[in-house]
Amino acid sequence: MTTVTEKTALRDALGLLKDREQVAERLLESSARHSFDPDTELDWAAPLEEGKWFLPPELVSLYGTPLWRRMAEEQRMELARHEVAALASLGIWFEIILMQLLVRHIYDRPVTSAHVRYALTEIADECRHSKMFARMIDKTGAPTYPVRRLHHNLGRVLKTVSTTPGSFAATLLGEEILDYLQRLTFPDERVQTLVRGVSRIHVVEEARHVRYAREELRRQMVSCPRWEAELTRVSCGEAARVFSIAFVNPAVYTNVGLDRREAVAQVRASGHRREVMQAGAKRLTDFLDDVGVLRGVGRRLWRSSGLLA
C-alpha cells in the first residue's frame, strides 16, 4: 500500500516522530478489529443490580471526608449513582466539542489520506460514545447534569477559535483523566455490570484516540509558530482549570439530600480526592511537560487547577 510520507523527519524531546500516515493506518487497522456497537454489545434490558455501586466508592468525590463518614451506606451509593450520571453528562459535553475540533482539523486536509480517514473513524466512535453515555444516564434514573452556563460558553469559544495544537492538548485533557477513572471502574466487581461494560468499551476505543492526539500534538508543537505554541500553553492551562471545576457538579449533593456548600468545601479540602485527580492526570502532565506545553503561564494555570502535583 502506498502512503503519503513526511517530507522532513521531525524530532522532539521524546525522539523521532512517526510518519503521520503510518500511524493512521495502524489506528484504522485497530479500529477494524476492536470497535463496538454499544446498542448490541451491552444488555440494556437487564435490570440494575441490587446492592451494587455505580462507581468504585474510592472514586466518589466525598470518599474519606468527614461528611462521607456520617453518611449511611445507602446515601453513599445514591451519591455514586448521581455522580456517574454527572460524569457521563460531562463526557457528552466534551465529546461534542471534540468532534467539532476534529472536523475543523481535517477541513483543509486531503480527504483520501489515512489521517483524515482515521479522524472520521474517531468522530464515528465519539458519536457512539455520546449515545452510549446518554443511554446509561437514562438507565440509572438520575437526571442529566449540564455544565455551568459559563463553562458551556467557554466551550463554545474553544471549539471556534482553538489552534490546532490547542485542540489536541484539550482533547487529551478530557480523554486521559476520564480514561484513568474508567480503567479503575471496569474490572471492579462491586460496580453495576452496565457501568463496567460502558467503561470497558470507552477505554478500548479511547486508547486509539489518545494515540492519535498525542502523535499530532507532538508534531504540531515542533512545527507551529512560536505564538501558537505560547497560546496553546495558556489555553491548555485554562482548559485544565475549567475541567477540574466541572468534574464535580454541585447539584449532585443537593439531589441526594446533602448541604451543597458543605459538600463542595469538603471535596476541595479532601487530600484523597486531590490524589485521585492528580493520579488521573499524571501520565498526561508528564507527557505535556516533555513536549513543551507545561511552561510559563500555562504551567501556573495547571497548578491552580489542582491537577498538577
TrEMBL record:
The lineage of its organism: Bacteria, Bacillati, Actinomycetota, Actinomycetes, Kitasatosporales. It comes from Streptomyces syringium. Gene3D superfamilies: Ribonucleotide Reductase, subunit A. SUPFAM superfamilies: Ferritin-like. This is p-aminobenzoate N-oxygenase AurF. It holds the Pfam family AurF.
